[in-house]
Amino acid sequence: MTALIATPWLSGQPDQDPRTATGARLRWGVIATGGIAASVTRDLELLPDAELYAVSSRTQAAADAFAADYGFARAYGDDGGQPGYQRLLANDAVDVVYVATPHAHHHEIALAALNAGKHVLCEKALTVNAREAGELVELARARGLFLMEAMWSRFLPSMQRAFEIAASGEIGEVKWVGADLGFPAPYSPTSRLWARKDGGGALLDITVYPLLWALGTLGFPQTVSATGWVNDDGVDAQNALTLGYHHGGQAQLTSSLLAHGPRTATVAGSAGFLQAIGSINNPKELQVRVGFDDVRSERFDVVGRGYCYELREVTRCIQQGLTESPVMPLEDSLNTMRLFDGVRAQLGVSYANDAR
Is 124 a residue of the active site? Predict the structure, then answer.
């Protein structure tokens, strides 16, 4: 089965540094001021054609502090019952927004941004269910606006090279993929990772990374079998997925908020295999072995924290009038949410957004 990962535009350019400008300057708005917003903003600073223009948070103090740290021109907190993000979206100078809120708020905020005429980069998972994702995709297409799920690992040189090797035939026909990602997250019913109202749990937060290895080498599956442990709050703390393919391929994927895992990925083919060395969402080395030959290693560096590559793609697409990325197409995000809806049905996990 053909994998669904397109080669990034950047890799075909003479200058493959994502910090190289590709067009007119865009004014960015960042919605939320948590840890992921800070990490992505640090990489956004590296793009010369990206201007840190506006930031919003629930409090004016948090917005002001974030703006001061990173040099944003405007800062918006909640004011008189109007959320800070709505105040940001009312600013006509903002071209594109990055939505960095917890999962359960993605749909509401991205929908408002699209209705306000803004292009949108929305943190993964795009939404908490396929219905919400479909509404965003429909609106973005109707309004001719750019929308992309922020699946940053897709754009990394090491990830793209792994998918290239798998597709090249060097390791033969891919038959089996195994990937895991886990860490013990301190439990708190109000934290983003554990709060059911926020879409907490392993599935939406970290399963996207093991899944990426299957999608990039085998494509979307025909069957999905899921097991896991759901805590008393109704949040999946750990899950294991087995994906099945008509041509006989399989993938075993494990995600956990309870235990440290080796964070490994293996792609096994009829002639050999490749393995990721380093965390599977940002591998620093790939090892390839064909038959009983010696292992070949390929090592990789990243610019910034690794988010530059997806940020370059968003910037480049908007500059060129594209409404979706060929590397992270909207149909992939829709199919991922459909797959996750099926997994949740097997695990017995539901969110408040499902009833809306």
Answer: yes
